[in-house]
Amino acid sequence: SAAPASSSAAAPACRDMAPAGIPTIDMSAPAGRAELSRQMVEAFAERGFFKAVNHGVPPRVSARLDAASAAFFARPAEEKQQAGPPDPLGYGSRSIGSHGDVGELEYLILHTDPDVVARKARAIDRDDPSRFSEAVNEYVQAVRHLACQILDLLGEGLGLRDPASISRLVTTTDSDSLVRINNYPPSATGDGGVKAASAVGFGEHSDPQILSVLRANDVDGLQVLLPDGRGEDAWVQVPADPAAFFINVGDLLQALTNGKLVSIRHRVMASTSKPRLSAIYFAAPALHESISALPETVTADAPRRYRPFTWAEYKKTMYTLRLSHNRLDLFKVVGEGGGDSEQVRVVQM
Ligand SMILES: C=C1C[C@]23C[C@@]1(O)CC[C@H]2[C@@]12CC[C@H](O)[C@@](C)(C(=O)O1)[C@H]2[C@@H]3C(=O)O
Ligand SMILES: O=C(O)CCC(=O)C(=O)O
Ligand SMILES: [Fe+2]
């Protein structure tokens, strides 16, 4: 089916933003583990994201990735193209996906398997490939650990019989997790000013995987779409904090929790005079993994919302669609009684 146009144009401008509603969670659990997992479930159910502080990722690990990324982006354009095109992994500039989405950025998308990183690093840092691959591998290890801690806490907060069942999807050796490094150039107009606040760095979308762990430098730009309390959604600016991680629910976690946790729509607006550098770890399962609602999340009051699907199937669908598409809707079960009924109809693409 045809992808709908981005709804960004229709969404309210930043000046109409809802009062800041950025849940912040102290990962050192000052009030105990049970309270920490309760806070996480609440933040993910109501907002789909939170800011993690005291997260345990050493600042030098992030700084090392920043330095390696900045060194790559500073190379001449012809040299960077050697690490592209994004097929869908690799170096890309402005074009996002293969359906006409564009943004004011350049990026690297890498699979997190260390062997794959090592191979790609030969085109990224030709003088010393291991300088780049080691920085990425060390970073990935640290953020995967953080992601799994969060997923275990969620498992506990959701009252799962097997609380580690979600994090196991990510720790498997054939996990399809990715890391994406984005560089948004300063949006100077040439006359000393900056572009209008409407310049899109990375258009509106939800992340397809299980969980996204985002860190950026001190440059603002990330916005999340949140209910404004008056029955509308509004874009809320997420103030930059290089010492924190911003964690968001992906489409698969929404499906696994039968819609209890919500995959948040977000975007990046490019209107600053400094480059924004960000790195996002997308925690994903293995390609063959079947995704269906965890039994504890399916009740008489909350019947099954999505039909089971594999990550490979979901990924194939997502790559045929525009960035802004509500792709999880295509897997919705329709009909009375939810998905446990033999009579269910499934929305076809
Ligand atoms: C337009 C697209 C880019 C994207 C693949 C897609 O067809 C739809 C999902 C997009 C997205 C958003 C989150 C991540 O940045 C990303 C790497 C992902 O897994 O899904 C991108 C994809 C991409 O840039 O290849
Ligand atoms: O670069 C950012 O800050 C966010 C980008 C993003 O949402 C993505 O790459 O999926
Ligand atoms: Fe995203």
TrEMBL record:
Cofactors that this protein relies on: Fe cation; L-ascorbate
Protein keywords: Dioxygenase, Iron, Metal-binding, Oxidoreductase
GO annotation, biological process: gibberellin metabolic process
InterPro entries: DIOX_N, IPNS-like_FE2OG_OXY, IPNS-like_sf, Iron_ascorbate_oxido_reductase, Oxoglu/Fe-dep_dioxygenase_dom
Gene3D superfamilies on file: B-lactam Antibiotic, Isopenicillin N Synthase, Chain
PROSITE patterns xrefs: FE2OG_OXY
Coiled-coil zones: none
Reactions this protein catalyses: gibberellin A1 + 2-oxoglutarate + O2 = gibberellin A8 + succinate + CO2
A GO term for molecular function: metal ion binding
Protein EC: 1.14.11.13
Residue span, Fe2OG dioxygenase domain: 174-285
Enzyme class: oxidoreductase
PANTHER family given in the database record: 2-OXOGLUTARATE (2OG) AND FE(II)-DEPENDENT OXYGENASE SUPERFAMILY PROTEIN-RELATED (PTHR47990)
Protein family (similarity comment): Belongs to the iron/ascorbate-dependent oxidoreductase family. GA2OX subfamily.
Record-given protein name: gibberellin 2beta-dioxygenase
Origin species: Aegilops tauschii subsp. strangulata (Goatgrass)
